[in-house]
Model the fold of this input.
Amino acid sequence: MVSFCAACSRRLLSVRPPARLAPVSRPRPFSLLATSRRVDTPLRALPPASYRSATTFSIGSSSSAAPHLPPIPTRPNIKVTAPSLAAIKEEGYLDDDVKLLPPEEAFLNISPEAVQQLVRITSREPLDILQRNKLALRVGVESGGCHGYQYLMDITEERGVDDYVMQPEGVHCIPIVVDLTSLGLLKGATLHHATELIGSSFRLQDNPQAKEGGACGCGVSWEAK
Done:
């Protein structure tokens, strides 16, 4: 299309009328936007740790009591199941001269508050997960930090051939599992659960294997004796 200016008779550029814009669709109701997805394997990892001290691990859980929470003894009885030494050697992951810890040393003290929190965690898990009898609180140690070691905690279904299994007796809750190497650095320590204004957390305290005053100022690592 060619047009001329009425004032000076100069030719104007051909301009194509803009295409008609497509109508804007109305927003869908919120209820229609929500979708559901099937998760075959639920994530078992806990939220990232809040390292307030070398002995603290936050699980980001509510401090409210689980329904029908049974009374926990002042000193809960803990059944310790040791791994099979033959299975460990057959696995070949550790040295050939590996030995199990003496039974009187292979334990963690578990406070009533920690047992109560394990009961709460158990009460929130789906029945099909619990029926597999694999879910546990894993407590471990890894090399790292400026003082040599740091504690690890995680809710997991993975088990190792060298795991010690510690089950509080008389209550329905998931067990604690600790691998052989980690237990050598944790034996005699106390697993506790504390509730504070800023949140609740599992923590390891009174570890006989940790050097007194050997925790790093950053609150992450600790030093072994």
Remarks:
- The domain at 56-205 is CATH 2.60.300.12 (Hypothetical Protein Aq_1857; Chain: A;).
